[in-house]
Amino acid sequence: MKIDVVEALQLKEKPEWGQNLGFGKIFTDYMFTMNWTEKEGWCNAKIEPYGPLSLDPASLVLHYAQETFEGMKAYKTKDGRILLFRPEMNARRFANSNRRLCMPELSEDMYIEAVSAIVEHEKDWIPTAEGTSLYIRPFMFATEAAVGVHPSSSYKFIILLSPVGAYYPEGMNPVKIYVEDEYVRATKGGTGFTKCGGNYAASIAAQVKAQKLGYTQVLWLDGVQHKYIEEVGTMNVMFKISNKIVTAPCDGTVLPGVTRDSIIHLLKFWGYEVEERHLSIEELMQAGKDGTLEEAFGTGTAAVISPIGELNYKGEITIVNDFKTGELTKKLYDTLTGIQWGDVKDPFGWTHEVK
Ligand SMILES: *Cc1c(COP(=O)(O)O)cnc(C)c1O
Prior knowledge:
Order of helices and strands: EEEHEEEHHEEEHEEEEHEHEEEHE
Number of helices: 7
Structural class: alpha+beta
Number of strands: 18
Bound molecules: pyridoxal-5'-phosphate
């Protein structure tokens, strides 16, 4: 792929590289952009200064939300190497999202090449303090100027980079989760397995409701019976019940998380039994009551692992592990982030060096 570089006239001042970076508020000097048209396919690949876009107000994305995205991170190792984590998984998921939304696909090679090019270009922006990384946000949207629902004849693909610290201000401390029994996130046949903007727009009402009640995130139940556990906020969710780990299967409504897959691999590698099955909220609350619910945590690129300390279902409250981070939760976090930051041996070939 030929990538033109447009030089910025002025570079930004870099922030303090500490834990207080926050999440997703600071962006680097440059972004990757590329267009797609029916005639030319992918064209015009560029690394250009980060800045506002000029967009026709009739652009289809602004009306019908034909938009998809990904989320990944780049890490700088102690010896100065730059690592991505399983980027081919994100490339494949992005292609699945795009197929579902009738958007053009980007080959796995092109996706990884584009991500690598912009990360390499902005490598001085990768923070090195403990727990920090460079968040990568590739996304694609419909740019054809038209009113009327149909697949766009043109698209734009962009990659933004943002140096980040912890996702939740709570850090690795347990969060309080509200079990949502009114709003739903996804149903079979819908777009639950994709990262498309519309899914998240539709989820905000539940998040606002939970936060008003003093909870950090919601736990989603299935869209038909409001009975089976799906995910927590924008993370997959796992429960350790009687020494087995239970998580929802990826059968159309759950987002197939790269972190989820990696955690399942690690757990099986350590000899744990992992059940990918439909777990009802009643079974979970009962496990909380009779003490067999040992640990609970969310998994996702942004927070990596987020322990759950409390669940509220219809006013009934279960406290998990005395509101402390569980031993296995901590071990999973340490091992996975250790592999991601290049501090722990990677027996799975998950890390991908950017050169
Ligand atoms: C991104 C996301 C996840 C986590 O996926 P990762 O690949 O682990 O980051 C889980 N659920 C939802 C709804 C998501 O958007």
